[in-house]
Amino acid sequence: MSGLAAKVANLTQGAAIPYTLFEKDKISITLKLPSILKLKLGADEEYLTAPVLRNDSPYDVLSAAFSITLGTVPDTNSQQVIATAQWLNTDNLETNGVMSFTCGKVAAGKELQCEPVTTGYKKVQWQSTMTSGTGTEVLNHLTLDSIELGSIASEVFPDAGPTINVSSSN
Fold first, then answer.
1. Residue 9 DSSP SS3
2. 117-129: pLDDT as tens digits
3. What is d(CA 78, CA 37) in angstroms, rounded to the nearest whole number?
4. Which conformational region is residue 90 in: left (phi greater than 0), alpha (psi within -120 to 50 degrees), or beta?
5. DSSP at 5
6. How confident is the model over 40-48, as a mean pLDDT?
7. Which of 61, 73, 63, 76 has its CA nearest to residue 37?
8. CA angle, corner 125, sides to 35 and 17, nearest 5?
9. pLDDT digits 0-9 by tens, 80-109
């Protein structure tokens, strides 16, 4: 078997794609994850990732705060849990199902990788159970705490204001 064939035979993750977790008024938060994972029973797989805030609005985003909850993956047919996804702290190997993130200033038309509030949580870890199956992880658990926009200037100005008449007699 050639070297390339051996590498392909050992792949456990598909190509990474960005999943949109939040989108409103041209501001979005995405998380890049593998398109597919192949796990053995009772095994785990890790992926280095962080959410990205994309600002396609005409306004600067001064800051954002949100949390992402990861959870269980049920088998499509039996609904039995086949895997659990959690945030993994690469410093101490602790896991957490919910992670809070913050983003600094993101100018209009730019994007920024957000940072976990608790340092060290840089990976997502999937742990398979002892149940075989195929399922899809649902990524709809983003809780937006705040998005602060910068100052906004009006693009429309009136031609004139009220007429003021000043006289010595009323």
1. helix
2. 999 999 999 999 9
3. 19
4. alpha
5. H
6. 93
7. 73
8. 20
9. 999 999 999 999 999 999 999 999 999 999
Domain boundaries, the chain: 11-149
Is the CB of residue 13 less than 8 Å from the CB of residue 99?
A: no
Cβ 17 vs Cβ 33: under 8 Å: yes
The helix or strand, by DSSP H or E, that contains position 7, with its residue range, turns out to be: helix 3-9
Distance CA 22, CA 142 (A): 7
The residue written with tokens 């456990």 in the block is 12
Is residue 141 within 8 A of residue 70, CB to CB? The reply is yes
* 123 HSE (CA, 13 A, CB side): 16
Q: What is the pTM of this model?
A: 0.82
